[in-house]
Automatic annotation (TrEMBL):
Family (UniProt): Belongs to the CTL (choline transporter-like) family.
A GO CC term assigned to this protein in UniProt: plasma membrane
Function: Choline transporter. Choline/H+ antiporter.
Protein name: Choline transporter-like protein
Lineage: Eukaryota, Metazoa, Chordata, Craniata, Vertebrata
Organism this protein belongs to: Sylvietta virens
Sorted UniProt keywords: Antiport, Cell membrane, Glycoprotein, Membrane, Transmembrane, Transmembrane helix, Transport
Gene coding for it: Slc44a5
Subcellular location: Cell membrane
PANTHER family: CHOLINE TRANSPORTER-LIKE (SLC FAMILY 44), CHOLINE TRANSPORTER-LIKE PROTEIN 5
Length: 685
């Protein structure tokens, strides 16, 4: 053994160190409290202790129409002045109306000015100047707090969207607008409120039933282990039962088609052709034609003949596939620790996901309030330049540009770091994909090394090395980190392109023309196929790396050509394995799901008193079904890796050895009997 793909290993380590540095920089600049707690235009948290906002826990938007959606609001990216208030507005009002009536209705002004900037109390100031300086909002509308932010209080009356039973409102700029203009600014808020209520009930159900959920997942784990053990004895039986069942069903279909064809004989109109009656929206019409049933019978006969011929000509390869499945079950029986390795892979991926999510949140909350000079651009050279509201009044800008104000523009920043936050998010996503694929590659290479040590043991299990799983893991980390990182890098690049295409498709939806949609669809399809192909190549390359210790490119090339020389065996083994493992997943998830359904619906008398009182019994039920499927998938992924490794070893064994004393086969006796070759040379004692 020697180190492989050293350059990629060095690059991978440097990237990890850079990723850690990116996380540290994001943690220094970011503040995730912005996601939970709103901040005003001065960067102060609403409700923060020992500040002027201590009793003002809700965020108010001067012009909510500038906010595109609730997601934009929650992410603090709404380009309007934001103010902390103690409560949301409960009435319609405009600054124009309040200013006109403040002399004889001072209560209206006192109410309205609580939504103005702190300290502003000059109702005589002209409307144009107030709106220019953003001292007060042009309007207020009835709102209610959600996520500590004021949103329009929408309701539906006779199918019409309203706010406080009104369908129109004054925007404070001399126009009357429809409340539907507010819909985009607060799209889906009512649905989210309903979802919050449902979410609380679901959380309560989990708090009550978590114990029974764990019991259900434990039962799923035991059933998965039992199924893998039984495959050693039942793989062939299950497969042939399925095959003959399919043949029988198709045979019944042929008989039924012939019966319908013969039954329609002599009935008026049944001898017409499909061409004669043309296209009909009622497809039952076609079932009244003899020609339809004749076509069905011919198609089913063709399928039946193809299946029978495939069984005749591929019977030996099917027997090899079944023998490899049994051998895989036997190998796992000798190396039981491999069944629990997916837990380690899961923990690695969980760490990667957690680090990526935390870094993404800190990057997204790195923005600071940016203020710019608001003035007449034709007269003031400082217009749209950044400014500091704390020192603005002491600068010469107010003298050179009368009426200029330092107002909030957006959340972000103009430093080098803030300008490249989007690039940092892409880097965060790319390295995340790379690390996840590396964790998966490490698991595949480790398992492949363990199962290869089983196959190449001349006397099984006596020659199997001690602790094969840990030895394989050590070899993979010590010698082949670079090769695994190289394979993971290629896959991560393709996946990043797929993510970008999905993002573009989402952003351009509704505005793209037919050619753009077609082009995006073709690109998405091509990259999906490329990702599937690369996963297949990488998986087998990792197996060859585990066996021979060569670099990634050499291992991928040798694995590819080895598989191409045995392409029929590959196809047969792949389909047989897929069927049996899919059957196992369905049996485990379905069996545990049925048991959970009878338990939570109190249909098991013995446990009727133990059933917890739930808001939705489907919450733990679906959790158990999905969890059982994932548990079964975790165990069966080990089995699939075992079968793939044994198959490549089997192909290598056939090409490198001939069964003689000098070159004995390492395959099991059952595989050797199926091949019908020379007898195995006597194994040394």
């Amino acid at each position: 053994r020697h180190c492989t793909d050293i350059i990629c290993c060095v690059i991978f380590i440097v990237v990890i160190l850079g990723y850690i540095a990116l996380g540290i920089v994001a943690w220094v600049h970011g503040d995730p409290r912005k996601v939970v707690y709103p901040t005003d235009s001065y960067g102060q948290f609403c409700g923060q202790r020992d500040t002027l906002n201590e009793n003002k826990t809700i965020l108010f938007y001067f012009n909510i129409l500038k906010c595109a959606s609730p997601v934009v609001l929650i992410n603090l990216q709404c380009p309007t002045t934001q103010l902390c208030v103690s409560k949301c507005p409960d009435r319609f009002a405009t600054y124009i109306d309040v200013q006109a009536s403040y002399r004889y209705r001072p209560d209206q002004w006192n109410y309205f000015r609580q939504f103005c900037k702190p300290g502003f109390n000059n109702p005589r100031k002209s409307v144009a100047q107030v709106l220019r300086d953003e001292d007060c909002p042009s309007m207020i509308i009835p709102s209610r707090p959600f996520l500590k932010r004021c949103f329009p209080d929408f309701s539906t009356k006779n199918g019409v969207l309203t706010v406080a039973n009104q369908t129109t409102f004054k925007d404070g700029r001399g126009k009357t607008r429809n409340v539907t203009d507010l819909r985009e600014a607060a799209n889906g808020i009512n649905n989210v409120l309903d979802a919050r209520s449902v979410g609380m009930k679901i959380f309560e159900d989990y708090a009550i039933s978590w114990y029974w959920i764990l019991i259900g997942l434990f039962i799923a784990m035991m059933l998965s282990l039992l199924f893998l053990v039984l495959l050693r004895f039942t793989a062939g039986v299950l497969f042939w039962i399925f095959i003959f069942g399919v043949i029988g069903i198709i045979g019944y279909g042929i008989w039924h088609c012939y019966w319908e064809y013969d039954h329609l004989k002599g009935i008026p109109g049944s001898d017409l052709t499909v061409y004669d009656i043309g296209f009909q929206t009622d497809f039952k019409v076609y079932l009244q034609l003899r020609q339809t049933w004749l076509a069905f019978m011919i198609i089913l006969c063709g399928v039946e003949v193809i299946i029978i011929l495939m069984l005749i000509f591929l019977r030996n390869r099917i027997r090899i596939a079944i023998a490899l499945l049994k051998e895989g079950s036997r190998a796992i029986g000798y190396i039981m620790s491999t069944l629990f390795y997916p837990i380690f892979t899961f923990l690695l991926i969980a760490v990667c996901i957690s680090y990526w999510a935390v870094t993404a949140v800190f990057l997204a909350t790195s923005g600071e309030p940016v203020y710019k000079v608001m003035a007449n651009q034709t007269l003031c050279k400082y217009a749209n330049l950044t400014c500091d509201p704390e020192t603005f009044n002491t600068t010469n800008v107010t003298k050179l540009c009368p009426g200029a104000q330092c107002t909030f523009a957006f959340y972000g920043g103009e430093s080098l770091y803030h300008k490249y936050i989007f690039i940092f998010q892409l880097v965060n996503a790319f390295v995340f994909l790379w690390l996840v694929n590396f964790a998966i590659a490490l698991g595949q290479c480790t398992l492949a090394g363990a199962f290869a040590s089983y196959y190449w043991a001349y006397r099984k299990p006596a020659d199997i090395p001690l602790w094969p799983l840990f030895s394989s893991f050590g070899r993979a980390i010590r010698y082949h980190t670079g090769s695994l990182a190289f394979g993971a890098l290629i896959l991560a690049i393709v996946q990043l392109f797929r993510v970008i295409l999905e993002y573009l498709d989402h952003k351009l939806k509704g505005t793209q023309n037919s050619f753009t949609r077609f082009l995006l669809c073709c690109l998405k399809c091509c990259f999906w196929c490329l990702e599937k192909f690369l996963k297949f190549i990488n998986r087998n390359a990792y197996i060859m790396i585990a066996i021979y210790g060569k670099n990634f490119c050499t291992s991928a090339k040798e694995a590819f050509f080895l598989l191409m020389r045995n392409v029929v065996r590959v196809a047969v083994l792949d389909k047989v394995t897929d069927f049996l493992l899919f059957l196992g997943k369905i049996l485990v998830a379905g069996g545990v799901g049925v048991l959970a359904f009878f338990f939570f619906t109190q249909r098991i008398p013995v446990f009727a008193k133990e059933v917890p009182m739930l808001n939705y019994y489907w919450v733990p039920l679906l959790t158990i079904i999905i969890g059982s499927y994932l548990v079964a998938h975790g165990f069966f992924s080990v089995y699939a890796m075992c079968v793939d490794t044994l198959f490549l070893c089997f192909c290598e064994d056939l090409e490198r050895n001939d069964g003689s004393t000098a070159k004995p086969y390492f395959m099991s006796a059952s595989l050797h009997r199926i091949l019908g070759k020379k007898k195995l040379s006597p194994k040394k004692a």
